[in-house]
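Forwarding these from the shared drive since the link keeps breaking.
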Amino acid sequence: MKVLRTTSDMLHARWHCGMGAETSVGFVPTMGYLHDGHLALIQLARRRAAWVVVSLFVNPTQFGPNEDFAQYPRDEKRDLALCEEAGVDVVFIPTPSEIYAADASVSVVENQLSEGMCGSTRPGHFNGVCTVVAKLFQIVRPDFAVFGQKDAQQVAVIKRMVRDLFFSVEIVVGPIVREKDGLALSSRNVYLHKPEREQALGLYATLQEMQAQWEMDMRDAQSLTAWGRQYLVDHYPEVELEYLVICDPDSLLPCADVQAGTLIAIAARVGQTRLIDNILVGT
């Protein structure tokens, strides 16, 4: 396994790491502090590609001024051991100065899908996501990149960026990986104290109960959303709901009628920790 830390080394990796022009390259961009969800994405890439590249980069431009950039968990030594065990070929670990010049003045902005949901409370977040992913695509030059379904809005935004800017990168989406109790895996789960973790289970429980109501023919999105909000309040009162939306998974436009494949997404705070989760109805 090669560990590369400069953009120049990564740009030339197809030659000095044996990643020839005809070799399939899968890419898994991460912010590190890897968990089983990341490893599932790496395994998905490993099954499809001759070479797998993983990036470990906590991107400063996608954090707001009052968010947890400085506190975001990091453990490079552990991440590298997990990558080697998973059969990763190249790990790219740039510093912020490698990705952003001191006088950087160009960014990538998506103006539609990034406005609601997480974009409503995290202004500029998806500008940072699009910009860093576009840069990483240019540096790594993968044939496909793997993202997790847990970040459903991010997936939709990245797919739109790839479409609109003609990136020759296939976007592959891996399913949500959950802990035994149903909590969606996230690097931020380490912030949760035991009582908070019990309340955090309310996100997935609400989604499951909404799906159960849908299976009993509650197909009106407004009614189903109201039902889900009330369920959360009644059963998990310490969860501070940020949003609960029912929408098309690609356009993120609201749906009036809930059909199979419709996205139900939730974001909430439990204590100081912000969590997200979602399901695709009937899948």
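-- next protein --
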Amino acid sequence: MALFDPRVLGARPSGLRRERIEASPRYRDGKFHNTAPLKSTLVEGQTLAQRFGIISEFVRGGPGRVPDVVLPVESPLDAWTRPAETGLRATWLGHSTVLLEIDGVRVLTDPVFGERVSPVAWAGPKRFHRAPVMPSQLPELDAVLVSHDHFDHLDYPTIATLARRNVPFYTSLGVGAHLETWGVAPSRITELDWWEEATMPGGRLSFTATPARHFSGRGTGANRTAWSSWVMRGESHRVFFSGDTGLTPEFETIRERCGPFHLVMLEVGAYHPAWGEIHLGPENALVAHRMLGGGALFPVHWGTFDLGLHPWDQPIETLATGAAEARVQLVTPRLGRPFEPSRVEAIDPWWRDLDARAEPATKAALRLRADPA
């Protein structure tokens, strides 16, 4: 096995794709920019000593950052054979990977089925629960949505597998260069800049790229591709997906132009003051949820990879407490169990039910059991 496969880095945008990028109002000086500059994060503004200290803490690990037991995972295969009774159903497959069923349209968000979110297969944050299904077990998809090109949202082996399906991809401006080099036909790639909208054939579902406060890159230079949050609108339901983002006043604009939402998917994990401007965390997720106008709150971007400096269940525990105080409808699905938001009456605190009777999280138990190939 090669120590490094350069294909994992993707490709730089060129040709007409490059021309579209250069025409974006957010692109200047060779890279994309947030609406307001970042002030103090690992991306910009940190001293070398600050960066080294945080990276050192991240590499060393810490108590509780990986669960001590194997997380419960269910199979959604039987449920997927039946249509959603309410028209809106979601299945959390780990991190930010969700199978959405919106008014009869199936959309897979930020598909990551690989064992590690890293440019190499032998190091980097490793999955600590198996994927509920293998990519080959996914039902027929109508679309794949990729918010941005970071490794924990855009996985090369997963995309190479999905490229063999005749499914369209919707993504942020420039990310199509990665998809195309990994085998996705150019005719099946739609790239959008903020506030651009694309409607699927037949008008069954529309995708709108909306503002997000983040950055991009796969090790070959930052911010050469765009990052976005997303609005999906079907015949009867609207869903918001944050991708990765920090808190931004543009959430209120999104509510005004695209709301209201029946389901709001917000990232809550991997937060830290050093990158507080580019990730929400649980407390800011509640603020963002209010700015977006409410709707069922579905937390993602937690519970699968150790990407932060906090205990693995701290994001959901903090969010559950805050949501109860704010009387927010919070949905906390088990991995692999489909749910229909309008039928969820209370949270399922499954992470609190884990105890010493569960299977110990040995190295063998935590190995990936869904081979993306």
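Residues 110 and 154 are 6 Å apart (CA to CA). Confidence is low (pLDDT under 50) at residues 48-56, 362-373.

- D.
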